[in-house]
Design a protein that fits this description.
The complex is a heterodimer of chains A (about 325) and B (about 525). Chain A has about 325 residues and is mainly α. Chain A is about 70% helix and about 0% strand. Chain B has helices at about 10-25, 25-40, 40-45, 55-60, 65-70, 80-110, 135-150, 170-195, 445-465, 500-510; strands at about 125-135, 155, 160-165, 195-205, 205-210, 215-220, 235-245, 255-265, 270-280, 285, 290-305, 310-315, 320, 325-335, 340-345, 350-355, 355-360, 370-375, 395-400, 410, 415-420, 425-440, 470-475, 485-490. The longest helix of chain B has 30 residues, at about 80-110. The chains are: A mainly alpha (about 325), B alpha+beta (about 525). At the A-B interface, helix 9, helix 10 and helix 11 of A face helix 2, helix 3, strand 8, strand 11 and helix 9 of B.
């Protein structure tokens, strides 16, 4: 196959993935919508709404259909919806969302593989490729994690951002196949940039969980309008999951910075030059270190800590979307 | 009761102690961390003198009010500014103040036994109770074995309880992480004090001898003796550069593809060997590393005086100014009277238009041209050395053009000669060589920095992955003879979802005896 054919196939795979993921996103949204307590539920059981307003207690009410529900002493069952007591429509939508996510992930993987074959090198040489591979890792991380625990409720919040990035990648950041400039030709490209991309992928999932936690916490505290959020895991559990994601991503980011320094020394003669990209990688590291620190600090609320983590993710976005394009530095590899 | 509450006076020592407590508290450390992140940002938004001095100067000129003010505040040297240093030094003082006492406590804890089991295990975060076969001491033995298999450190303070603890590595890892960060800082400082870097522009065919005067720029650390350099030489035999000629990729046409310098490296003992230097493949000399960081063109120019005697002949490096290697430079001929000077552009693929003047449209030598203006007068007015690449025309007058223009413009292609007016001689563009921009650097702190950074990473992983857990067991004879009631409680350092499963697992190991 010629490189042009490969390029067309790669782009076709990415466009198909976007179509499939759009459907997956819709299915996941439908899943959450169908999970939301029905509006007429108030008529059916008024006391249920009363209980639902209080934090923690609403599980007893919403799980009225399960055999345990009558016993007040029974430990509160986990709020993540058990598959059995979900409305059938919701369960079907989630199944469709999951299958389509798997298909979309496969298509993105194919897009990356075809791109690699087309450019005859590690496909991490410009912004389009970073975004594409980053989307792939985000999907893979989500799929991998979802195989181990029920994360269907998270689907919308992972597939949505991924779709956004893929869209920006193929329209704004798209770069035709090209060779690398000499400083990028190194085995460190595969090490440094791959781990960086993986780390950002996991940070993305962490940020989605962190955002959900903050919303959930507000809903539990203020008893806001009833919504699908009531069927998501409780705030504490969401916070733990967010922390788990960050615990994986942060050491990877640390490694990214170290590997980048080793490479910088080889390519530019000095392991740290305070190039804008290095500055922002450092800022990201420090902000996430502050998050972990805040979480371990007694007297700091978990929600404040999560805000710091979201600040770290904002820095990641700046580091990618702003530094690559607008700042003058040695990391000018946007390809734009 | 009406008296106001009299608070004890703190006194000087008290205040110092109070300040120290505040500084070493986690909250302060957190605040300093966030401050450090914020303080680092201006270094990416403003040009930095250490990275690009010319752009910095330009920025200050362009911003008449903000420029000098920000300059005074250190915004163009953020990472060397007092306020940036203040933040990270305070952070490290805070870190040391926090970590040293913790190390002492941890050291003590590692050498002492797990604490006595609390009286009411059911009050612990995780707790289970069950009845099993066997006498209490048999059950205790079995559970002790189970806990040890699960890598707990187990101690029995009395006949009916066990205290077990594991996960000391969590705190060890955390401490190693923090201490290693100090190592990183020390390594950076060490490299700054004892490292140096120097840049050389070396045209093909010429030899560089590693002595101070041969460097174009040399920046030593404060503790470096610049006269004590290794006596080696590097001759540049060939310089191969490739540029993208395929114009399909957006923005890719003319991008560099490969730089490669073939050199002959001769060490202090006179052993010569051919060594290649390329981007990402520096040359290690033993006491320094030679990096290929740039390249450009050195047009070979010969100047003859009115009698036809050669007064200047050399490959003269011109510095590239843009991606297409529009290069500027000067040819200085002190051997004539008055001295001659030529300044202008070298264009590897030259185009001269009215709008942009002389410029290059491709970085490789497709149509090399030399566009110069000529001057005569004094080259070095006050005898001080000037940049090799610019001509100081303060005490020079331009040679007038032949057709009445006020300035003589010379355009040469390889092999062409231009006769200077008034019998001043001629200038010949013989051909063009490439030059290599070499940077020679040492950083004695880099090994410490790297080692510490990797150690910090290891410590970090341990501190995030390992769980610190305490498990307590209490047994008592059951109502049925030969049966024992086992009560197991677990306590984790911070919230630990798995503690309940852990206790369940400890008990399941004893399942066969239910």
């Amino acid at each position: 196959m010629t490189d042009t054919t490969l390029a067309q196939l790669s782009n076709l795979a990415v466009y198909s993935a976007m179509a499939v993921l759009t459907l997956a996103m819709t299915a996941y949204a439908l899943y959450l919508a169908r999970l939301a307590p029905a509006r007429d539920a108030t008529v059916e059981a008024p006391e249920r709404e009363l209980v639902a307003a209080g934090p923690g207690a609403d599980t007893v009410g919403s799980d009225a259909g399960t055999p345990d529900a009558g016993t007040p002493q029974a430990p509160a069952p986990p709020r993540a919806p058990a598959r059995e007591d979900e409305p059938v429509g919701a369960r079907k939508a989630a199944g469709v969302g999951w299958t389509l996510t798997l298909l979309g992930t496969l298509l993105v993987v194919a897009g990356v593989a075809l791109r690699a074959a087309e450019v005859h090198r590690w496909p991490l040489g410009n912004m389009y490729e970073f975004a594409l591979v980053g989307s792939m890792f985000t999907l893979l991380a989500y799929v991998g994690w979802a195989l181990r625990r029920d994360l269907r409720w998270l689907g919308l919040f992972v597939v949505g951002p991924v779709l956004l990035v893929l869209g920006a990648a193929i329209t704004v950041w798209y770069t035709d196949a090209s060779e690398l400039m000499p400083s990028l030709r190194s085995v460190w490209l595969a090490i440094h940039v791959t781990v960086a991309t993986m780390s950002v992928a996991v940070f993305t999932i962490g940020a989605a969980l962190g955002g959900l936690y903050l919303v959930q916490q507000r809903m539990e505290g203020g008893g806001g309008p009833r919504s699908f959020m009531a069927r998501l895991p409780e705030a504490r559990a969401l916070e733990r999951l967010a922390y788990a994601a960050h615990v994986v991503a942060f050491p990877m980011w640390t490694f990214t910075v170290i590997a980048g320094a080793i490479w910088a020394r080889q390519a530019w003669g000095s392991y740290w030059n305070w190039d804008p990209k290095e500055v922002w990688s450092f800022v990201i590291w420090v902000v996430y270190a502050a998050y972990l620190h805040a979480r371990a600090t007694t007297g700091w609320s978990r929600s404040n800590a999560v805000w710091i983590a979201l600040g770290g993710f904002a820095c990641i976005i700046v580091n990618f979307a702003v530094v690559n394009v607008y700042f003058v530095g040695q990391h000018s590899y946007s390809g734009l | 009761m009406t008296d106001a509450v009299v608070q004890p006076r703190l006194g000087a020592v008290g205040w110092v102690r109070y300040a120290w407590r505040q500084l070493t508290s986690m909250r302060t450390a957190l605040f300093l961390l966030l401050l450090l992140a914020v303080a680092a940002v201006p270094g990416s938004t403003f040009p930095q003198r250490s990275i690009d001095a010319a752009r910095t100067a330009q920025w200050i000129t362009d911003h008449q009010t903000a420029g000098p003010l920000l300059d005074r505040l250190g915004f163009f040297e953020v990472y060397a500014s007092p306020w940036f240093a203040a933040i990270y030094l305070l952070l490290f003082v805070s870190l040391i103040g926090c970590v040293v006492p913790r190390t002492r406590i941890h050291w003590h804890q590692m050498r002492t036994r797990p604490p006595r089991a609390p009286r009411r295990l059911e009050r612990l975060a995780a707790h289970r109770e069950t009845e099993v076969d066997g006498a209490p001491d048999e059950v205790l033995d079995r559970l002790r074995a189970t806990l040890q298999r699960r890598r707990y450190r187990v101690h029995a303070h009395d006949d009916s309880t066990l205290s077990a603890e594991k996960g000391y590595l969590k705190e060890s890892g955390n401490l190693v992480f923090h201490l290693a960060l100090i190592g990183v800082l020390v390594g950076v400082a060490w490299g700054h004090l004892l490292g140096w870097k120097g840049d050389v522009i070396l045209p093909v065919g010429q030899t560089f001898a590693n002595t101070l005067i041969r460097y174009d720029t040399f920046s030593p650390g404060p503790w470096v003796d610049p006269t004590d350099l290794d006596p080696y030489t590097i001759r540049l035999d060939a310089m191969d550069v490739e540029f993208e000629r395929d114009d399909t990729g957006r923005g890719q046409f003319g991008m560099p593809r490969d730089f490669r310098a073939t050199t002959t490296f001769t060490d202090g003992d006179g052993r010569a060997q051919e060594r290649e230097i390329a981007v990402n493949h520096p040359l290690e000399t033993g006491h320094g590393t030679v990096f290929l960081l740039g390249n450009g063109y050195a047009p070979h120019v010969t100047v003859r005086d009115g009698d036809g005697t050669v007064v200047y002949t050399d490959a003269t490096p011109f510095l590239p100014e843009d991606d297409n290697y529009t290069s500027v430079g000067a040819v200085k001929v002190p051997g004539t009277d008055p001295a001659l000077g030529f300044a202008g552009f070298f264009l590897p693929t030259g185009v001269i238009d009215d709008e942009r003047g002389p410029h290059s449209v491709f970085p490789d030598t497709v149509d090399p041209q030399l566009a110069l203006t000529a001057f005569e007068g004094t080259l070095f007015p006050d005898g001080s050395p000037r940049s090799v690449y610019t001509l100081d025309t303060e005490e020079m007058t331009p040679l007038p053009g032949g057709d009445g223009a006020d300035q003589l413009r010379i355009l040469l292609r390889p092999g062409q000669t231009f006769e200077l007016p008034g019998g001043r001689g001629s200038i010949t563009f013989d051909g063009v060589e490439r030059f290599a921009g070499l940077s020679i650097r040492t950083d004695p702190g880099k090994t410490l920095t790297l080692g510490s950074a990797l150690l910090a990473l290891g410590g970090l992983v341990l501190s995030l992955v390992v769980r610190r857990r305490r498990v307590f067991v209490r047994v008592r004879p059951a109502d049925t003879a030969g049966r024992t009631v086992v009560s197991v409680g677990g306590l984790a350092k911070d919230d630990d979802e798995g503690m309940d499963d852990e206790i369940a697992a400890v008990l399941t190991a004893d399942e066969g005896h239910r």
